[in-house]
Amino acid sequence: MQPPLTACRSLRIGVYEATWLSDTPFGSDGGAMFGIVPRALWQKKIMPDERNRVFVGLNCLLLRGAGRTLLVDAGIGNKLSEKQKAIYGLDPDVSLLKALDALGVPPEQVDTVLMTHLHLDHAGWLTVRTESGELVPTFPNARHVVQVKEWEAAHADHPLLSGSYVREDYDLLAARNLLELVDGDAEPAPGVRALFTGAHSPGHQVIKVESGGERLFCPSELLPTTWHLRLAWVMSYDLDPLRVVDLKRAYMAEAADEGWRLFLSHDPASAFGRLSRESEKEYAWLAQS
Ligand SMILES: [Zn+2]
Prior knowledge:
Blueprint: E1 10-13, E2 16-29, H1 30-34, H2 39-42, E3 53-65, E4 68-72, H3 82-88, H4 96-103, E5 112-114, H5 120-123, E6 127-129, E7 135-137, E8 143-147, H6 148-153, H7 171-175, E9 179-182, E10 186-189, E11 192-196, E12 205-211, E13 214-218, H8 241-258, E14 261-263, E15 272-277, E16 283-287
């Protein structure tokens, strides 16, 4: 599914221009996207295909301003096997690199990549293979900001974790000195903060941008799509769903009450918007026009 042409693609947040870049649509198992929610309920929001997949967006956020170029997350890339690409229903015509190219931003210009976590649908474009098969960093001049707990989880070889990570996406970054491991909150650019949350994955972090009195919040997997506005609708990928719900409740209340703009990592149609509070537990999505 392609975002509607009317979807807002770019916002000004103080000194930063925030731009929504789409990597390929991604066919995720429908049940996994909605955890304990019965299909009879979630299919009213999004009908799965004949393989029970729902197609989500792989949304990356570009921040440009104050002489800086930052990228939040890096899609799924193009290094998966043909079989995996078919399983996920990837579209080779839609990619983060094409989106950057269309904006006239060469990968060499990106100075910082903020990784909300290292799952394979977020870290894929951190490295690419050249025609000769050599693995190279996609953003050779960027420091790549990753929580140390995420780095450890991505190397833990735990049976519950290992299917979510692909080491060739990120191990090269350490070898090339492009990795910046952080333990807790960080501010990699003025007004751009990475806040440790864990919960979805051991080192998951969310991003807040505050500049010139304007505010943008990227909750990443704490609120992946507008289908997940109900507090209990969380993904079965979440390692600590109770904590995801607690964090989600706190961040959604803050975002609604303080008027933050949001950027959603997996909504296929509407990445930028705001929350309006309908009741203590219920929110509505106001897409950015
Ligand atoms: Zn994830």
